[in-house]
Amino acid sequence: MPNILAFDTSSDYCSVALYSQGKLSSKSELAPRSHTQLLLPMAKSIIENNAIELQDLDAIAFGSGPGSFTGLRIAAGVAQGLSYGLGCAILPVSNLQAMALQRYREKGEQEVLVAFDARMDEVYWSVCCVNEVNQCVSVETYGTEHVSAPEALFIPDECSKKSFAGVGSGFNFLDRFPVTVQQKMTVMDAEARPQARAICELALSAIQQGASGKLADAMPRYIRDKVTWKKLPGRE
Question: Residue 44 belongs to what H/E stretch?
């Protein structure tokens, strides 16, 4: 069994998880703007508590996005540095898929609409299905991952007859979602945030399926390619 260390700093939580000797351990702390101070000490603590060394790690995983641009860069930078220094695999994991898996682990619901507040009056979102066969879990995204105004959400045609659990801070905009989407929701949790446990589990699944975990491929995934802003008066 591989030893996998996972990070997530994409939201206001700082989260670390370790898979070692068939056991998954995690630490999480609500820590807005304190991720850089907490991330490595939390990782050191969880490694020591499991009686392994950094050199024993086979892979590093991180929540690659979407999420806070600064948060994504923190997790990616730490993961890249450790992967390079240790010479081990590195696996970027979708935060939207991780949230779908969290819901499945907590409530057993396989069909999940995940939505995060993306600021700028938009949400990151995707429609996911969680599958588990012979203790190997996977998350399928129907269509693709999106960033849009809350009014632009839609249910893809291939799952139009399904209903969904809704998770993520984007559900604070529920009253702006199209009625056709609202009608598909069976339950909602706007307080849920990505956690490294699910990221670690999806990384394990990827390794079991043969993922190589190349450093060159381990980049944040912002979805929103550019940020726009209003210029101050007199500025070009």
Answer: helix 35-49
Task: State the fold for domain 4-94+194-217.
Answer: Nucleotidyltransferase; domain 5 (3.30.420)
Q: Tens digit of pLDDT for each residue in 30-50?
A: 988 899 999 999 999 999 999
Question: Tokens 């000797």, residue?
Answer: 21
**Token pair in block for residue 28:** 């999480």
Show Cβ contacts of residue 18 under 8 Å, excluding neighbours closer than 6 positions.
3, 4, 5, 6, 24, 25, 26, 46, 47, 50, 200
pLDDT (tens digit per residue) in 156-187: 999 999 999 999 999 999 999 999 999 999 99
pTM reported for the whole predicted model: 0.93
**Inter-residue long-range contacts of 83-86, CB under 8 Å, 24+ positions, other chains counted:** 83/213, 83/215, 83/218, 84/215, 86/54, 86/55, 86/57, 86/60
Domain boundaries, the chain: 4-94+194-217, 96-189
